[in-house]
From TrEMBL:
Fe cation binds at H242, H292, H359, H550. One of its GO terms (biological process) is carotene catabolic process. This is Carotenoid cleavage dioxygenase 8. Binds 1 Fe(2+) ion per subunit. The keyword Lipoprotein does not apply. It comes from Escallonia herrerae. Its cofactor is Fe(2+).
Amino acid sequence: MASLAFSATGTNVFPSYMMVSDNPRHARVGCTFAKADLKKKGKTRDLTITNVATELRPSVSPPAKEVAGEGKLVAWTSIQQERWEGELVVEGEIPQWLNGTYLRNGPGLWHLGDYNFRHLFDGYATLVRIHFENGRLVMGHRQIESEAYKAAKKSNKLCYREFSEVPKHDNFLSYIGDLANLFSGASLTDNANTGVVKLGDGRVVCLTETIKGSIVVDPDTLDTLGKFDYSDSLGGLIHSAHPIVTDTEFFTLLPDLVNPGYLVVKMEPGTNERKVIGRVSCRGGPAPGWVHSFPMTEHYIIVPEMPLRYCAQNLLKAEPTPLYKFEWHPDSKGFIHVMCKASGNIVASVEVPLFVTFHFINAYEEKDEDGRVTAIIADCCEHNSDTTILDKLRLENLRSYSGEEDVLPDARVGRFIIPFDGSPNGKLVAALNPDEHGRGMDMCSINPAFLGKKYRYAYACGAERPCNFPNTLTKLDLFEGKAKNWYDEGAVPSEPFFVARPGATEEDDGVVISMISDKNGEGYALILDGSSFEEIARAKFPYGLPYGLHGCWVPK
């Protein structure tokens, strides 16, 4: 006797022809049920459904009500449930060596009651887990239980300052109190909705740009375990949302808003103590440039000083400005500083052309025949020094897009060349023709074995125009100056994350994982071959997930 697979809410999450056994010991159905024709750039491929779920773990929260004004495209729609977990149908074949967990963090809840948030970056954090084991796939998601989220859930109103949102004040005294809490950091959010990293000691931490928004989670259950409290006395309110983390190292930057500059710090595995390597003083002003991310090489930390600078006045305003907590200061110029990891000394500090970037891709050292470093090469997703990308990410803009206008600002792989010969100026060039990836470029990953080293391949989100948001996955060949692109019309893919095959000797020997929000309000996990960039498997979610930001890999 066979039965349909149902979720705990009674909704049939699989098509009716996908049948599973009543016997719970039957962990896998060995026959083929159907084939799906999957369109990809005008081509079709047959993927055989090889695995199906035998049991769905129950959800613990009923679906949230639909938010007025939100369209079919689920990428910009609040998550339907607070949590869910279950095994998914796999179409195609997942490599047997792929055993571990991909975690993806990002904003996933953009409303409280009838109040809708303004900006993509405001949403309360939704952590998604995709666990791979022996060719099978289990997916789950859960809200990160930050103090900001718990307070909002309890009171049904905003209680902390988010990226563009400020709590509404009942009277003037409450406004004054909020300002006092802003300077102390008490009113800043701990909504850890940006990234997730696995530390060298195995702890998994979700992050945002506020230091208090560092939250430890369980990668298996997605339980929120508590705050990641730093045991040092460095203080500060903000840090880079993207520390550089390996099995043996942790580096991050702490912007100094009072005496403009950056502390470069490191933390040993197994500790919570940050130690100062050195300090970079800003060459421009009136405040440090935004450092959402930064790169490093084998021996150097690269500190970007972007003319998009923090702005205390904007933080004090009750309503957001077009650049939110930042301000564009082209007259202050742009700079790149290079610090020695070992000594903390500044070995190069050069002026570079104006730039706007959220995400650096990688950096490496150029050496002469005698092995001496002659320059640093640092690559990033660069928006042609156009700050309008921030306002394009307002939810109203994302949700109201008709599909006809081409409104996504151009972007490229910006390559900084920082000479070590004492020259006062560095260069900023395109690492390849931006038309190769549709003049869209963001959300990047590389083979982690090549972090800080000369590398050939990167994976990112590009564009198939017209569009209002990066809508392709692209594999960049930086040696040949070429790109391979994956595109599903009307869909929004999240960050392509590369996982290397154990024992691989080639840089692109592995798979690329992404989560896709499609045009029909549904979604799926996508697995591409890292070398050919062809689809090898996908697994449909029980319902579409909102767009997410950044992820990490936790090996089994």
